[in-house]
């Protein structure tokens, strides 16, 4: 487990811009080193804010978008093109504006796709897609993502791993169908904690007053079943990117020196 590092920005706009700049650098470095990069996107307000900031950043042209693999940490199990789907929102915020290779855009299945309403089959298919992309150099049944981003929900959920639900207890499968999520829609697909932990870097995004309690709980030693964000960490780095409002309830001892 890599201990969390915290960076606190003045407000959510600056946080989104700084995180977008950080992501550009990370992708460019990975592409320079290996020829390609892989990023796992998150849904939610903070994830989409970051993508919109990236779309507006002139430095986005430093990325070779055709050599970037995109995956999702979770998806709302809704019909293709539904405005509430995370992939629809990501397309609007950024993806439609850059030259991606469609074969490298790994959206999670929709509820009107090949698996119909069977979310468990859809989750298994996404697990198989991840396994097929994992190489011998990877540490398991998912690729070693360069960066995996997670928006932190006000209840400490990440991806679609909600406190106390079966999905957050999963230790074998890499992707699961989620039933009965407390946040609509109730049916979702999610990476599990073991899949999340295969990433080189995990970035948790939390901006806004409504994330303050969740950040404080997750960073104060809570268990991952009760506070899923506490169980999200990367193999090389775990980075919490916060704004001042989301950091406002952190214990003083956790507050980064530069922000004190
Ligand atoms: O439903 C979801 O919510 C979380 C957090 O969203 P936010 O709007 O509270 O920031 C998000 O991370 C997840 O991907 C999404 O499906």
From TrEMBL:
Its EC number is 3.1.1.31. It holds the Pfam family Glucosamine_iso. Residues 11-240 form the Glucosamine/galactosamine-6-phosphate isomerase domain. It catalyses: 6-phospho-D-glucono-1,5-lactone + H2O = 6-phospho-D-gluconate + H(+). The keyword Hydrolase applies. One of its GO terms (molecular function) is 6-phosphogluconolactonase activity. Pathway: Carbohydrate degradation; pentose phosphate pathway; D-ribulose 5-phosphate from D-glucose 6-phosphate (oxidative stage): step 2/3. InterPro entries: 6-phosphogluconolactonase_DevB, 6PGL, Glc/Gal-6P_isomerase, NagB/RpiA_transferase-like. Gene3D superfamilies: 3.40.50.1360. It comes from the Bacteria. Keywords: Hydrolase. The keyword Hydrolase applies. It is an enzyme of class 3 (hydrolase). Hydrolysis of 6-phosphogluconolactone to 6-phosphogluconate. Belongs to the glucosamine/galactosamine-6-phosphate isomerase family. 6-phosphogluconolactonase subfamily. This is 6-phosphogluconolactonase. It comes from Streptomyces stephensoniae.
């Amino acid at each position: 487990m890599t201990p969390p590092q915290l960076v606190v920005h003045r407000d959510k706009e600056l946080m989104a811009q700084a995180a977008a700049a950080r992501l550009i650098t990370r992708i460019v470095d990975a592409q320079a080193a290996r020829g390609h990069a892989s990023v796992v996107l998150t849904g939610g307000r903070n994830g989409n804010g970051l993508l919109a900031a990236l779309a507006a950043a002139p430095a986005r042209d430093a990325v070779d978008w055709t050599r970037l693999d995109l995956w999702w940490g979770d998806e709302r199990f809704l019909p293709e093109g539904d405005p509430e789907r995370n992939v629809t929102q990501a397309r609007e915020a950024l993806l439609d504006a850059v030259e991606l290779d469609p074969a490298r855009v790994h959206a999670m299945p929709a509820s009107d796709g090949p698996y119909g309403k069977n979310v468990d089959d859809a989750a298994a298919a996404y697990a198989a897609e991840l396994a097929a992309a994992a190489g011998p150099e990877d540490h398991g049944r998912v690729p070693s993502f360069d960066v995996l981003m997670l928006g932190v929900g006000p209840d400490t959920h990440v991806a679609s791993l909600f406190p106390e639900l079966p999905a957050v207890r999963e230790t074998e499968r890499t992707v699961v169908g989620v039933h009965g999520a407390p946040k609509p829609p109730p049916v979702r697909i999610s990476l599990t904690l073991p899949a999340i932990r295969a990433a080189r870097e995990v970035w948790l995004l939390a901006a806004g007053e409504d994330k303050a309690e969740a950040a404080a709980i997750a960073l104060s030693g809570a268990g991952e079943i009760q506070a899923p964000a506490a169980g999200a960490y990367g193999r090389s780095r775990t980075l919490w990117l916060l704004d001042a409002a989301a950091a406002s309830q952190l214990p003083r001892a956790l507050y980064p020196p530069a922000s004190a």
